[in-house]
Specification:
The chain has one domain: 2-Layer Sandwich (Alpha-D-Glucose-1,6-Bisphosphate, Chain A, domain 4), CATH 3.30.530.80. The protein is built from three helices and seven strands. Strands 1, 2, 3, 4, 5, 6 and 7 form a seven-stranded antiparallel beta sheet that branches. It comes from Leeuwenhoekiella marinoflava DSM 3653.
Length: 148
């Protein structure tokens, strides 16, 4: 019984874990999630595009095999609202799609904008932890469409 519980726990954990990592090819921090398709690609592109529009993403664009947009979330630190901006790219291939969140930067009204790659290690770790906490919610919002 205990072994079954442990196996089920790890299966559930592996399906929900999205962590931000440095892509060695691009030197950009990103979160990547891959999932399977149940509808044709053109239908999915249209649905993701509509969902991004509903979620107030900016600069939404699409091609025959992808859709992308920009968004942000806020974090209040010491009475000041900080914005964490990111790009969201949904790419389609065969019977799967990949959601990539990348190009993270913080917009601080006091100090300006700075990317995760340009931050000092200590500050970067704190922001990465925040993105790790928020990424599942962001991805779930993107994936949520009533008629899927």
């Amino acid at each position: 019984m205990r072994k079954i519980f442990i196996i089920l726990f790890f299966i559930a954990l592996s399906g929900t874990a999205q962590t931000i990592k440095l892509n060695p090819d691009t030197n950009i921090y990103e979160v990547v999630v891959i999932d399977s398709l149940t509808k044709p690609v053109p239908d999915r592109i249209l649905e993701f595009k509509k969902q991004m529009d509903l979620l107030s993403y900016a600069d939404i664009s699409s091609t025959d095999s992808s859709v992308s947009g920009e968004s942000y979330f806020t974090k209040k630190i010491m009475g000041s609202a900080m914005e964490v901006h990111f790009n969201a790219i949904v790419q389609f291939k065969e019977n799967k799609y990949r959601i990539t969140l990348n190009k993270f930067y913080v917009n601080d009204v006091r100090y300006g904008q700075y990317t995760f790659e340009d931050m000092k290690s200590g500050n970067r770790k704190r922001w990465i932890k925040l993105v790790d906490e928020k990424a599942p919610e962001i991805i779930d919002q993107l994936k949520f469409v009533d008629n899927w």
